[in-house]
Amino acid sequence: MTDILDERRRGLEEEYFRRKDKESLDKLRSALAEEARARGEDVATMSCPRCDGRLHEHIYDEVRIDRCDKCAGVWLDTGELEQIIAQESTPGRWLKAFWPGRADEK
After folding, report:
1. What is the 3-state secondary structure (H, E, C) of the chain?
2. Looking at the domain assignment, is residue 104 inside a domain?
3. Residues 12-37: pLDDT tens digits?
4. Does residue 18 lie in a domain region?
5. Cα–Cα distance for residue pair 61/84, rounded to 1 Å
């Protein structure tokens, strides 16, 4: 019984820190975007870990992803891959992609 409670407690703790990490990343992104706007530059969030390019934020299926402007590498933050996979497995996903506007009709 205590093993189940310990697992539950660890799961809740991991979820708490995942949520805190996401909040911190969102705050950092907004601060960097404001700073770039103040300088009159294009909004770039961070340096690319692979090359010397800058990562720009893009929206893919309502998920924010980072893409490098030089090497075109795509970088995901914590939980973004899981969000994309969850959206890919929803019913009617491919019908919506090939026939937008008609997938919601029954």
Report:
1. CHHHHHHHHHHHHHHHHHHHHHHHHHHHHHHHHHHHHHHCCCCCCEECCCCCCEEEEEEECCEEEEEECCCCCEECCCCHHHHHHHHHCCCCHHHHHHCCCCCCCC
2. no
3. 898 899 899 989 988 887 887 787 77
4. yes
5. 7
Residue identified by tokens 């019908």 is 95
Tokens 């697992």 belong to which residue?
A: 7
Angstrom distance (rounded) from CA 51 to CA 68: 9
Number of domains in the chain: 1
| DSSP-assigned beta bridge partners for residue 75 | 66
Residue 49, token pair as written in the block: 């870990």
- Its domain, for residue 58, covers 2-98
Q: By percentage, how much of the chain surpasses pLDDT 70?
A: 80
Round the CA-based radius of gyration of the chain to a whole number and report it: 18
* pTM of this prediction exceeds 0.85: no
Q: Is residue 103 part of a domain?
A: no
Tally Cβ neighbours within 10 Å of residue 27: 10
